[in-house]
């Protein structure tokens, strides 16, 4: 048990002098990092002889102490005692917490590593000052690391920790897990930091930030610009990520609002980058054009960053994806995330094969997807339910749950991912985890023309890109308009079957371009009643 201490874990620099760029010295590098915004430092030198470790520790402490930045020593209590620094970080093969506390005294900071529930329970029982949770991602910096948690594993471990009581009579007051400062560690860099911070927030604890900060080795130690890198880390730890999906209690679902969503598509003409399956590329491009947005197909990683700089949307459809394509899919989402561009992920067939499950969980666990759109079994497979048996890419009607059951699963995934989930079916469900909208529309021809399910992703992405502050309403508008257009097209006099319907469907979607309030309403009033077809739960 320990007394409360004041320290800031926002950007926790863990050193490794073997990674320093040529010509750099450890103390100078750390000082630059502190100037950029590193708030606490751990001297972690795995291969250094004790005498050198102590010498370097003293030298570093002389530099950090006047700046008020705590210096901790990795693993070695003897070195920490000799240096007289502010504390240590220990793992489970090192000196025990109790022994370290006895040797260091009550006023020193002691941090413990946590990689699983058992370690979390022990750390809670000890009542240490903070925990380092990881490894989040695989990293070469710690070759002997345990299996990476991924963001989903991190989130569920943090959620579990939040339930743990602290040591009796301690300042944690019996709610250790909701109070103990925690940092994530392992593979964290400027590309994934926003995602890590965003997804570690607990919806069950009034959106409390679970993480007090992040601990980083290579992204700072190997950088030739530690000051600049730390400035960016510090800003990203504090700010709301650009891709955040705002949840609001009040959502405007009127016809005028829906029309404004499509108006903004025509006005902004967003680029929609598609990585989609071979079967639907042409149709998805035409659907995107019909709305007034601009489709582009690219599977070449070298241009993703430039494409993302156009500030459009990304459709990621894993319909005909391969194992070799996994890094390419991830690179596309990361480029979109880095620019705050909306991502619509379509985990086609996620419940059908292990490769698809693996790809879906790799995308969702390593990036942020504003919208995950899939049928019931795809959504359940992404949620991680092992018993999902999807036959091919379609939802199996025999395995279908009740509407309430579907809503529960769609909401659970949206809550976990802090995003929007669209579960397509007889009734389409759109939810951000708290708001739920149902859309009961469409036409049977949709099932007879390949690509109609996938191209809904293009419409959602165009609407999100053109309405970035209204992501939930934009998604509802996209889903409702798409299925209403299917019904309206099927009723046209020249439509005799799926082929003529497909043509009429594109024409009907094209009419949405004219739904501007100031445009003459020449016999195209079908969008006027869109909002009336939405049931808000
Ligand atoms: C902040 C922080 N968290 C976790 C660790 C890992 O410590 P440990 O498990 O002791 O592994 P090594 O660092 O000794 O390889 C850490 N060092 N810092
Ligand atoms: C010390 C440690 N503990 C878990 S992962 C890790 C290394 C993190 O290094 P990096 O930030 O370079 O991935």
Automatic annotation (TrEMBL):
Gene3D superfamilies: 3.40.1190.20, Aldolase class I
Keywords noted in UniProt: ATP-binding, Kinase, Magnesium, Metal-binding, Nucleotide-binding, Thiamine biosynthesis, Transferase
Pathway connected to this protein: Cofactor biosynthesis; thiamine diphosphate biosynthesis; 4-methyl-5-(2-phosphoethyl)-thiazole from 5-(2-hydroxyethyl)-4-methylthiazole: step 1/1; Cofactor biosynthesis; thiamine diphosphate biosynthesis; thiamine phosphate from 4-amino-2-methyl-5-diphosphomethylpyrimidine and 4-methyl-5-(2-phosphoethyl)-thiazole: step 1/1
Domain of life: Eukaryota
One of the record's GO molecular function terms: hydroxyethylthiazole kinase activity
Main function: Condenses 4-methyl-5-(beta-hydroxyethyl)thiazole monophosphate (THZ-P) and 2-methyl-4-amino-5-hydroxymethyl pyrimidine pyrophosphate (HMP-PP) to form thiamine monophosphate (TMP).
Family of this protein: In the N-terminal section; belongs to the thiamine-phosphate synthase family. In the C-terminal section; belongs to the Thz kinase family.
Protein name as annotated: Putative thiamine biosynthetic bifunctional enzyme
Organism annotation: Sphaerosporella brunnea
């Amino acid at each position: 048990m320990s007394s409360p201490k004041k320290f800031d874990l926002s950007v926790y620099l863990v050193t490794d002098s073997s990674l320093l760029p040529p010509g750099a010295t450890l103390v100078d590098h750390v000082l630059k990092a502190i100037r950029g915004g590193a708030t606490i430092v751990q001297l972690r030198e795995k291969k250094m002889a004790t005498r050198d470790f102590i010498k370097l520790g003293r030298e570093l402490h002389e530099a950090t102490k006047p700046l008020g930045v705590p210096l901790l020593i990795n693993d070695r209590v003897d070195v920490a005692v000799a240096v007289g620094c502010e504390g240590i970080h220990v793992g489970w093969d090192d000196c025990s917490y109790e022994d370290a506390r006895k040797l260091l005294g009550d006023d020193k900071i002691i941090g413990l590593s946590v990689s699983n529930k058992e370690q979390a329970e022990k750390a809670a029982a000890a009542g240490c000052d903070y925990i380092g949770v990881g490894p989040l991602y695989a990293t070469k910096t710690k070759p002997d690391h345990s299996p990476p948690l991924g963001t989903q594993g991190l989130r569920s471990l943090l959620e579990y920790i939040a339930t743990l009581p602290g040591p009796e009579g301690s300042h944690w007051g019996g709610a250790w897990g909701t109070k103990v400062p925690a940092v994530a560690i392992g593979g964290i860099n400027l590309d994934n930091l926003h995602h890590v911070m965003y997804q570690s927030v607990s919806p069950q604890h009034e959106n409390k930030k679970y993480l007090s900060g992040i601990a980083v080795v290579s992204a700072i130690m190997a950088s030739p610009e530690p000051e600049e890198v730390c400035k960016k880390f510090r800003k990203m730890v504090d700010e709301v990520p650009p891709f955040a999906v705002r949840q609001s209690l009040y959502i405007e679902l009127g016809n005028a609002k829906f029309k404004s969503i499509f108006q903004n598509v025509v006005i902004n003409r967003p680029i929609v980058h598609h990585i989609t399956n071979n079967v639907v590329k042409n149709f998805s491009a035409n659907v995107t054009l019909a709305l007034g947005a601009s489709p582009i197909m690219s599977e070449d990683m070298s241009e993703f960053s430039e494409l993302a700089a156009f500030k459009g949307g990304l459709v990621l459809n894993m319909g005909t994806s391969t194992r070799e394509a996994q890094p390419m899919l991830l690179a596309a989402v990361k480029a979109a995330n880095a620019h705050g561009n909306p991502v619509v992920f379509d985990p086609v067939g996620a419940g059908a094969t292990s490769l698809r499950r693996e790809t879906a969980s790799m995308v969702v666990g390593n990036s942020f997807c504003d919208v995950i759109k899939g049928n019931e079994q795809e959504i359940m497979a992404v949620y991680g339910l092992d018993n999902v048996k999807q036959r091919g890419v379609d939802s199996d009607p025999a395995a279908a749950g009740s509407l309430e059951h579907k809503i529960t699963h769609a909401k659970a995934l949206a809550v976990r991912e802090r995003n929007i989930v669209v579960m397509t079916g007889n009734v389409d469900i759109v939810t951000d985890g708290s708001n739920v909208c149902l859309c009961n529309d469409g036409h049977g021809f949709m099932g007879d023309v390949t690509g109609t399910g996938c191209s809904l992703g293009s419409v959602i992405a165009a609407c999100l890109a053109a309405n970035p502050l209204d992501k939930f309403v934009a998604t509802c508008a996209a889903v409702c308009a798409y299925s209403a257009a299917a019904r309206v097209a099927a009723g046209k006099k020249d439509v005799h079957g799926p082929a003529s319907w497909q043509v009429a469907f594109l024409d009907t979607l094209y009419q949405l371009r004219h739904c501007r309030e100031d445009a003459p309403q020449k016999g195209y009033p079908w969008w006027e009643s869109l909002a009336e077809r939405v049931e808000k739960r």
